[in-house]
Structure formats: C-alpha cells, structure tokens
Specification:
This protein has 675 residues and is of the alpha+beta class. It has 16 helices and 27 strands. A hairpin with a 2-residue loop joins β6 and β7. The protein starts with a helix and ends with a strand. One of its GO terms (biological process) is carbohydrate metabolic process.
C-alpha cells in the first residue's frame, strides 16, 4: 500500500511540475495549485456564465444574461442567478470525495478552448480530473467532463444534484425517462421561479458515456435533495470518462422554458462527448483568429489574453444583448445593468475585432430607442434620453438614491458615438440609414433641447454628473460637453452621408459649446473646478477618445495636471486612457507604466481576474478589461478609427516587448505588426 501511495503521489507531482512549467511559458493557460485568496474565473458563452470555485465539483453561481427580476421589494432590477446544474458528487468505495480527503489539487484555465480543468488524487485509489465549459455551440448549455483513473479496483458512484439559490422560489425537481419508440431519454430537471415570480427557470441534465450506459438511480440525500446517479466497478488502470450536460432556459428568452431546456438536453444526449466538445473548440478557434500576440513579456501576454477571453466570453453575435460592467461573473455586480462601460470601454476593442459582436451591443440600444424617447419626453426634452443604468426594459434602472440615474446624461452622447464608429469601421450605408442615423438623429435632438444658450452665443449644459462622479450636479462638465460636441458633429456627417439635410442647430451648438480653462490653458473639469481629487479621467477623455484636444503641449499639460488628481480608489480604466494618450505622443515608458498601473493592482489570485479598483474585490471587472485592451490596440498598436476604416498610425512599442502582432482587425481581418 505504501508503495502504491508513493507512486501515485510521484506521478501527480511529476505531472504537475511538467504541466506547471509548460503553462508558465504559455500565453494560453493560467495554472494554479493554490486555493489561497481564491477568486473564481467565469466560463461563459454570451448567454450563461459559470463562476468557478476552489471547492471540488462546486460552482459558485450561474448567471443568466439579459434576464431580470427585482433585487428586493421596492428595489430595482437585478440579473438572474440561475439554477446551478453543474454539481457533481463522487463516492469511491462508499466514501464521499471532498476537499478534505484529496491531495495534489490544481486548476488549469485554458483560454484557447474556454475551459477549466480541476485535477486531484483521492487517497491511493484514483487520479481524477474534470473539465467545465460553457458550450459555445449550445449557448444555453454547459458540459462537465469527468475522467477517473483507478489506481486499484474501485466502486465508483457518480451523482448530480441541482443547486437552488436562495433567491429562487417554488423549486421542483423531478426525473423522467422520455421515450420515442424504443429510444429512452432520461432527463433530470428542476424548475423554479425568480425572486418575485417575474420569470420561470428550467434546468435539465443528462449524462453522456463513451461506452455502455449504466442504469440511473434517483436518491434523496442529506437535506432532502433529490439526486440522480449511477455506480460502476472500475478495474485498476481502466480509465473511465463520462460527461454531464445541462441546459438552462428562462421565460425571458422562451415562452416554454421547461420544454426548451429538455430539448437542449435531448439534443446533447443524442450526440457523443467528443463531437460536442469539438464543436465548441472549433467555434473558439474561429474567435481566436482575432488575437493579440505579445513577444518578450509573458505576463502581459497572459493578462491581455485574459482580457480578450473575458470580453469574447461575455458576448456573442445575434443576441441583441450588451455587456454589464461585471460581464457574466456576477448577477449582483451593478445588478447586471448596462452603463457607458459598454459603449466607451468594452465596445471599441470588440468593434476592432468582431463587428458582428459589436453590432449586437448596438442592437441592444436600438431596441430600446422608443423607451429612451419616452424618457426624454417625460423630462421635458426632445429626442432620446438613454438611461444611465439599463436593463431588459430600456427604462431607467439606477437605484433612486443614486444621483447618476437622473443626472449622468453623457450616456446619451456615448451611445451615439458608438453608432457612428460602427459606420466608420464597416462603411455599411444601409445599416446607417435603417439603424445608425435614426439613433444619431434622436440623440442630437435631445442635446439641442438640453443645452442652454448663453448671452455670448455659447451653449452650456448645466446640472450634470460627468465621468468624474465625485463631482455631482455641476455645470459644463468637460467630458459631457465634449461628448456632445462630437456626437452633434457625427449626426451631421451621418445626415450628409445619406443626403439628408441636417438640422443646422446641430453644428451651431457643436461649434459653440462652452469649456472652462485655467489661466495656463488647462481645461477645467467643470465650471467651478478648483483642483479637487477626481474619481477617474474626465478632461483627458477629450484627447482620447474624443480627439478634441490635440495640441501636444496642451495634451501634455493636462496629463501632468490631472494624473496626480486621480483617486487611489479609481476604477481600472482611469489609467488606461492616460496610457493610450502617452503612447500616441510617443512616450513608451510612461505609457507602459500607466498600462500596468491600470490593472496590475486590480488582479486577484489565482487567475488574475480584475477587480474594479486596487482596493475593491468584485471581479471580474470587464470594463477594466476594455480599457486595458484599448491601451494595447489604440495606444501601443497605433490603431485609429477613421473615415477610411481602422488604420495604423505611429505605433509605440514599450522596451519590455519585442514584438506586437494584432490579428483580425476590421472588416478585412487585417494584421498589424509593431516591432
């Protein structure tokens, strides 16, 4: 027995050492053997997100994209936490396998294949690993692939139960064997209702096997939890593999979520494990034709890939959904609402790489245009007034105590800017006519009714919250006025592209909107700004992305003035924009410092998921990933969104990098290289 234990431990140690050394040199894998300060990573496919846990076979939560119920009575909407259908439980020779009786635990995040594999040894009896993936080929489904290598003859029992979050109500679990002629389809299913019964949820599970299917049994375990399972005698070194496939549907997406979840499960049941897995891998291989390759700095390579992986995971084309600040890593993070984070921070990298995904973020806004027009009218304005926090309804979803919901109105300009940049990138004039211009027109009309004309012929926007939320209810906020100046110009250009006569007021306001300055020429953040600490970049956004402030000496002055003013509690993207600006000025050293400062303090172990700020712990902050990627693409990479599409101008490579390759840019999937 001692010899067997020793050999097992030696085998696992050697495997882990080899795996760890290989992964340390790979830009595709993040490998850990530590559970200390564990922050889970999300496996997602644009529809569902599965958040990992360090406890074996446990899922922290499943997040359902774009479907909401109230967070509490009297509260605002919150994205749904789903039924947790990915729970396995193993017994070997009658003993439950737990964190307390295993050894050699490790996890490997494979970003290339969008999966995570957990490996461990159970005493001297078996080496076990399981892989979780949110299936790209089945957007409402996930798969857990279990591998068991017996080190001696063992009795293996495998169970699955449904986890029911406390917020879900009226949960019912059942096991049915459906039949079509001689074909039997065993389905384990749980149905429930959301917290205030706005939505119905249904999750269905099936097991897949490589060879002969064992007989299912239904068990009532501790806590009266129904479980299904099977048992199998495994001979020494006779490896065993099976897979659990689950699908979760809600009434937010389907009229009959119960039946639809069963259909997905049945579809999977009539496939084999490798076919389903290979379909998933093939789709991710297609996604990764869009990539950023950094040579000479493996840390930056992994961090950038993690950011790309996260944005690709949290989105998919043709869903007409956008991305919340926390993506699909949490249903509670900002309640899953949609902010300016989508259009200003996450959208530009997606637009550069995948115009189909970028378009679906815009579809989300277009579908809610009528609600935005209603909001504008309700506040006495013309055009469309988009909510600061948006959910499935398109109405304002910000908690009423937050001034941002009423006064952070630059979101309406941000939406219009994103629409124009899609046209610049694609040149799709039909889209501009049917979708882009209708939004830009309503956005422009809103701002014409919102501004106030001064005696000197300039225009002011009073009583707003700007990008710097530390300064509420100010007049002539720099970023708000700057974004309005730009979007009114874009609306005019869009009209001209379509040979429509633009409203002459659009350019009159754009040309005469008011900004305030210190004596040395530095722009004030707002009319009464006196040098206070700020939450994040505001004035500097007029250099990038708005391209209003362009004279190098002034750009440099404003960088030097405002960087020290940024709070230590700033969100991750604050320094990213400063990095872009420095790179465009050719200051590679400063740009790289700010690039790292923008996210390294926010990384959380063991996978480097990003928190919103250096002092918070709410990963994954997808907005920060968007800022980080903009620093690489539009800073170091020199990319520009222009009337000629996406072009490269004056790239700037930090000395820490030997070469930067950006693949799959724009409608022609161009490759840009900096070395």
């Amino acid at each position: 027995m001692k010899t067997s234990i020793f050999l097992s431990m030696l085998f696992m140690l050697c495997s882990n050492l080899l795996m760890g050394n290989g992964y340390k040199n790979s830009g595709w894998h993040i490998y850990t053997e530590s559970k200390e300060n564990y922050n889970g990573v999300t496996l997602a496919n644009g529809r569902i997100g599965i958040v990992t846990d360090q406890k074996i076979f446990n899922t922290k939560e499943i997040v359902i994209n774009g479907v909401y119920d109230k967070e509490f009575e009297g509260g605002v909407s919150q994205m749904l936490q789903g039924i947790i259908f990915t729970n396995l439980e193993l017994h070997i020779d009658g003993e439950k396998v737990t964190n307390e009786n295993i050894s050699n635990w490790s996890q490997d995040l494979n970003m290339k294949e969008a999966s995570i594999t957990t490996s461990f040894s159970f005493k001297n009896k078996a080496n076990i690993n399981y892989t979780i993936l949110a299936m790209r080929n089945l957007p409402y489904a996930a798969m857990v692939i279990l591998n068991v290598e017996p080190l001696k003859d063992i009795k293996l029992e495998v169970f699955n139960h449904m986890g029911i979050p406390e917020e879900l109500k009226e949960a019912k679990t059942n096991f049915n064997i459906l039949k079509d002629g001689e074909i039997e389809m065993p389905i384990f299913q749980t149905t429930a209702k959301s917290r205030f019964k706005k939505h119905e949820l249904a999750a269905s599970n099936v097991f897949l096997f490589d060879d002969e299917k064992p007989e299912y049994k239904v068990y009532n375990m501790s806590g009266n939890r129904p479980m299904i399972g099977f048992s199998k005698i495994l001979k020494k070194q006779n490896k065993f593999r099976c897979a659990l496939v689950g699908a979760e549907c809600t009434s937010g997406d389907f009229n009959d979520p119960k039946s639809e979840s069963e259909r997905f499960a049945i579809y999977a049941l009539r496939q084999n494990i490798d076919d389903l897995l290979n379909q998933h891998k093939k789709l991710w291989a297609k996604i990764w034709e869009n990539d950023i390759i950094i040579e000479g700095d493996m840390e930056s390579q992994r961090d950038v890939r993690m950011a790309l992986y996260s944005l690709f995971s949290f989105s998919r084309k043709n869903t007409r959904l956008s991305i919340s600040p926390m993506g699909l890593s949490s249903h509670k993070g900002y309640n899953g609402h949609i902010f300016w984070d989508s259009e200003i921070w996450m959208y530009p990298p997606l637009l550069a790489f995948d115009q189909d995904i970028a378009k679906t973020l815009l579809d989300y806004r277009f579908d809610r245009l009528e609600k935005a027009k209603e909001k504008a009218a309700n506040y006495g304005f013309k055009g469309a007034m988009f909510p600061w926090e948006s959910d499935d309804t398109g109405e304002e979803a910000t908690p009423t105590w937050a001034l941002t919901g009423t006064f952070e109105q630059h979101i309406t300009a941000d939406v219009g800017i994103a629409f124009w940049n899609y046209f610049l990138t694609t040149g799709d004039k039909t889209w501009l006519k049917l979708t882009g211009f209708p939004v830009l027109k309503e956005v422009a009309d809103f701002w014409i009714s919102r501004v106030r004309e001064n005696e000197d012929g300039t225009f002011s926007i009073i009583n707003v919250v700007g990008a710097d939320e530390f300064a509420p209810n100010v007049d002539d906020n720099a970023f708000t006025n700057g974004s309005v100046k730009v979007v009114l110009k874009y609306a005019t250009k869009a009209a001209q592209e379509l040979e429509i006569v633009p409203n002459e007021q659009w350019m009159k306001v754009s040309d005469n909107i008011k900004f305030h300055y210190f004596a040395n020429g530095v722009m004030k953040e707002h009319a009464n700004y006196k040098g206070e600490i700020i939450k994040q970049a505001d004035v500097n956004l007029l250099t990038y992305p708005l391209a209003i402030t362009t004279k190098e000496d002034l750009v440099r002055k404003e960088l030097n003035y405002y960087e020290p003013k940024i709070s230590k509690e700033c969100p991750a993207m604050a320094h990213a924009v400063l990095s872009v600006i420095n790179a465009r000025l050719g200051y590679a050293k400063e740009a790289f410092r700010l690039f790292k400062q923008g996210y390294v303090p926010n990384r959380r172990p063991p996978f480097g998921v990003l928190s919103e700020s250096a002092n918070s712990n709410n990963p994954y902050f997808a907005t920060g990933a968007g800022g980080m990627l903009q620093a690489v693409l539009f800073g170091f990479g020199g990319l520009r969104i222009t009337e000629n599409g996406i072009v490269q101008e004056n790239p700037c490579l930090p000395k820490e990098w030997k070469k930067l390759t950006i693949k799959g840019i724009g409608i022609n999937n161009e490759i840009f290289v900096v070395e």
